[in-house]
Design a protein that fits this description.
By secondary structure, the chain is an alpha/beta fold. It contains five helices and five strands; from the N terminus they run βαβαβαβαβα. The protein has a five-stranded parallel β-sheet, sandwiched between helices. α4 links the parallel β4 and β5. The protein is globular and about 40 Å long.
């Protein structure tokens, strides 16, 4: 993996979860930006291209599954791996997340070492795809 810090966009309406990402993932060497809702996430994505997105499912206005589908359908964001993070562990939610384009999912509470492994696995898949495309 390249030495540049990998950029993570965390989309979660829970401030404490965002702070956990910002502290924990930054300590692991990631550059983390938090967006509390779909609107701010869209604004951020119009100007930035993160390496990975952490997507909460339960959010006001646009839920994470809908936003995942929207990002998959947009050519500018379709290649960014999305890891869905949810307080819901039911199979339907997790199945929808993967069906609509998430590469992985995690159920809260989040363990940083597990999250780090999932992020690195998602980034490795993207790097492999980019190599294969060349």
């Amino acid at each position: 993996m390249s030495s540049a810090k990998k950029r993570v966009l965390a989309i979660d309406d829970d401030v404490s979860v965002c702070e956990y990402y910002e502290r924990g993932l930054a300590a692991l060497g990631f550059d983390v930006t938090c967006a509390p809702d779909a609107k701010e996430a869209r604004d951020h994505l119009s100007k930035n291209h993160p390496d990975v997105i952490l997507m909460d499912v339960m959010m006001p206005e646009t839920d994470g599954i809908t936003l995942t589908r929207e990002l998959r359908d947009n050519p500018k964001t379709s290649d960014i791996p999305i890891i869905v993070v949810s307080g819901l562990a039911d199979a339907g939610t997790l199945n929808d997340a993967l069906l609509f384009g998430a590469v992985d999912y995690m159920v809260k509470p989040i363990e940083l070492d597990v999250l780090k492994a999932k992020i690195e696995r998602a980034l490795a898949v993207v790097e492999r795809k980019q190599k294969d495309a060349r």
